[in-house]
Amino acid sequence: MRVRILPPLAAALALAAPSAAQAAFPHTVAAGESLYSVAAQDGLSVSQLAAANGLSPDSQLVSGSTLLIPPQTTIATGTISSSAGPVGDGDGDSDDVGSTAATSSTPVSTSPAGGSYVVQPGDTLSAIAARAGTTVAALAAANGLDPNGVLLSGSALQLSGSGSATTSFVSTSSSTVGNSEPVGTVAQGNPSSPPYPTPERVSASEVGQIAAANGVPPSLAQAVGWQESGFNNDLVSSADARGVMQILPGTWDWIQRSLTAGAPLAPASAADNVRGGVLLLHSLLGATGGDPSMAAAGYYQGLSSVRQNGMYADTQQYVNDIMSLARHFGGG
To answer: Which of 21, 73, 77, 298 would be 284's cystine partner, CB 3.0–4.6 Å?
Structure first.
């Protein structure tokens, strides 16, 4: 789950990013990736990536094919995807948030007075703000940045400080709204806590069966599982989201306490990772009147953040991807 949210190979892409400033480099498409998710991880627009490869921005990627990643020197604020975000999450989850992905390979460091974050290739103010449970305006103000300016890889951001930025961060990251999952540092939780990745893959039918048994449209759960991980339970995003449904440790703990109804999840089970994500989707559907688009937005960005700030651009792209995949899996 984003707030967060990450794509396959996100860590490898982050390591490869410095060379992108000098020359184009190849990227092998992983299961579940899209032009949007790959572009997001490399600080490009979909149009730039598509043009560099002679593709339409609406083209669907084929797993195993190769893309050429054109060079860039700065990372502009704006849209990223959690297709990984196969971003973010956010996955934040967002996150990752988003991302899907997706999110960065350097975790947020926190302290009683707040936290700091080192900007990674592909990051944007909107994605970082979503994962931290604050707004773009507050994050920019806290760091003396132009909300529409450029964000440089390797620079450090203060996630909470004085004035309105601190208030926004604390109030959102430490609470939930309605039946929504936690966001920000609460969602990140303890890195040593479950869920734990295992070298397992599940099938679309297995995801669909678990979804149907828990009152969630199978096609919606299948879309989230494919977008988040390509049904791979061994995937750990650079935001520390884990398993088939890319669930952060803090979110996993909240699901265990709030949604399992006395039937706890096994921490190292691919099936129960799916069940955890499905229970979260069930909760989000209940909180949004059964709206699958809003449920997907809440899964990625955190429902409390969506309600407070609206859908960020990367969240909207994640939702579009999920709805398209759900139709592919038979959701009409």
So the answer is: 298
